[in-house]
Amino acid sequence: MPLQILVIVASTRPGRLGPAIADWFVRATLPEAAGGGITLDVADLADIGLPLLDEPEHPSSGSYVHEHTRAWSRRVAAADAFVVVTPEYNYGMPAALKNAFDFLYHEWAWKPVGFVSYGNTSAGTRSVQMTKQVVTTLKMMPIGATVALRIADSTRDGQVVDSAGLQESARRVLSELSRVARAMRSLRTGTDGEDASTAVPVEGLRLSTARPDDLAELLVLQRCCWVQEALANDTLDLAPLRETLDDLRASMSTWQLWCVRRDGRLVAAVRARAHGRAWLIGRLMVAPDQAGNGIGSWLLSYVEAQAPQQTTHCELFTGHRSTRNIGLYERAGYALTVIDGAPHGSVYLTKQRQLTS
How far are the Cα atoms of 47, 67, 102, 315 from residue 54, in angstroms, in the given order? Predict the structure, then answer.
């Protein structure tokens, strides 16, 4: 399967060497990346422009109010691995890099990270050592292969002085990173990284945060599932049937989406987001030929467990004639509630969360 590696330019200082070094790394590894099905995406923190951490909720909640955070979350979540291009400032990493790490939590987990460092006496290696302490706390795995550039020896006029040795070092970083990323892929099965295969209702299920390359298949699954809803409720005027690929892509900025695959095939999905004290759950779907195996109940239980600590209840809508769905939700502890403003032809169900101190 293809891999996406995010190359992070850590320095935002004027006159920095980071962009030139990142460009060199991409050029040096591009032939191997193309041959190995690897996409290299450069994220320059100076262009991304994250302010000093300004989210009101803890990053582990996954509840973001600012678009700059949601955009950064999507970028990091889409990556399978990272290459950090970093200088050394006073024996440590740049503050902008620490801030970029601190903005997120779950998006980093169970992914490998390699380093291309640069500096004077230590070639930036003390920055790397400091950064390793941070990334391991985020459940990332630093690899052994590195590139360390002494500025006086390896750069001239703001560019890397290329050599066969440096190119080989860059290729080793890419090779080890891709190998570890593929090995760790099975661990990336949810926002908390727990392996969902340990308690699945049927064999072969893998649950993961939705990625941009899941969306086309997800849209097909959604159409299949809501055709049944249309028949049950005697209407084609259902939002999931009108949704386009662009609509689905845009929803990733406001909803958390999860996908379930069985032996590689997308068979189920769900999305959720916090809204005040409520945890909104939507688009819970299971492929028609997989229904009746307990996948829907299992996925509902999973997404309920992802609710941020401050939420007091879960809520969702379904069609008023969707008796099978209503039965599933009532067995899971949901109660029908009458409210103003419910979508036409829909019923509203809520469930109080069991909060722990």
Answer: 18, 11, 10, 28
